[in-house]
Design a protein that fits this description.
Layout lengths: L8 H28 L14 H24 L2
Length: 76
């Protein structure tokens, strides 16, 4: 990431850490909401919150695929 941020590597590093912390905060919040749910929630429902992780992995794989396709199209 720092290689692509030629003119502002410090800003890029700061945004990377901020995004990581935001993800941690959202995960903690989501876990608390799932545990506190009154409609069939509680601790047994926590594994279902892992679907957010699966969605994140799918978005990451999709983004990698899009990047590779764009790189191939640009090299032609």
């Amino acid at each position: 990431m720092l290689n692509t941020a030629n003119e502002a590597p410090t800003l890029a590093s700061t945004l990377n850490i901020a995004a990581f912390n935001l993800g941690n905060a959202f995960g903690a919040y989501l876990g608390g909401v799932v545990i506190d749910m009154q409609l069939g929630g509680g601790l047994p429902a926590v594994p279902y919150a892992a679907l957010v992780t699966v969605a994140g992995i799918l978005f990451t794989l999709w983004g990698i695929r899009q990047h590779k396709n764009a790189s191939r199209a640009g090299s032609r």
